[in-house]
From TrEMBL:
Keywords of this entry: Membrane, Transmembrane, Transmembrane helix
Topological type in the membrane: Multi-pass membrane protein
Principal cellular location given in the protein's record: membrane
Highest taxon of source: Bacteria
Gene Ontology cellular component annotations, sorted alphabetically: membrane
Family recorded in the similarity comment: Belongs to the acetate uptake transporter (AceTr) (TC 2.A.96) family.
Database matches in InterPro entries: Gpr1/Fun34/SatP-like, SatP
Name of the protein in question: Membrane protein
Organism: Jeotgalibacillus campisalis
Compartments, record wording: Membrane
């Protein structure tokens, strides 16, 4: 191997995985919000998008972000990828895939507690998102509202209002995530700012 080949190998970098990660988030939240808003019925056809787009696509993005030494992106994509795999598994339990005994022993309050845990996670990640870009920051703010709505509605606190809060927040997450994914692809592809994502707030850095 000559010196030029060595140099070329060193210069090869891993592509930014944000586009596929955000696309995965956009797809699953779009489909899931359609059920919450009453546009579609049931969860059977939400499951594939939860598993493959919400789960596997975001886990893939997490692994690729780790190669960039990006702790924030790695953690965010992994946590939400695992969230959607967890949600998919929870729905499968409710459907009796793991047996009637498991389905009969379901306590929705445990899911509500899990949503509170993810709300805590999302809140401190929102602080971190302030120093990434404004599109990602708004996505995290909407995720905060999503988990507030999910937690309270699941725990039976103002369930109708909180369900609607979660539904609207989830739909807006999808819209902002589609935009963020498009910006990541097109800005890199064209080598210029085609879709602006907003500079970091510059408060902590």
């Amino acid at each position: 191997m000559n010196q030029n080949q060595v140099t070329q190998r060193v210069q090869i970098t891993t592509a930014d995985p944000s586009a596929i990660g955000l696309f995965g988030l956009a797809m699953v939240t779009l489909v899931a919000s359609s059920a919450k808003l009453g546009w579609t019925d049931g969860l059977s056809f939400v499951l594939p998008w939860a598993i493959f787009l919400g789960g596997i696509a975001q886990l893939f993005a997490s692994v690729q972000d780790a190669k960039h030494n990006n702790t924030f992106g790695t953690t965010a994509f992994a946590a939400f990828g695992l969230f959607w795999l967890g949600m998919g598994t929870s729905w499968l339990i409710q459907y009796g895939v793991f047996g009637e005994a498991a389905a009969a022993a379901v306590d929705p309050n445990q899911l509500g507690i899990a949503f509170i845990g993810y709300l805590i996670f999302s809140l401190f990640m929102t602080v971190g998102a302030m120093e990434t870009n404004k599109v990602l920051f708004f996505i995290f703010v909407l995720i905060d509202f999503l988990f507030i709505g999910l937690a309270l509605s699941t725990l039976g606190i103002a369930p109708e209002a909180m369900h609607m809060l979660a539904a609207v927040a989830e739909l807006l997450i999808a819209i902002f995530s589609f935009y963020g994914s498009a910006a990541s692809v097109l800005n890199t592809h064209f080598g210029k700012i085609t879709l602006p994502i907003g500079k970091p707030f510059g408060i902590f850095k």
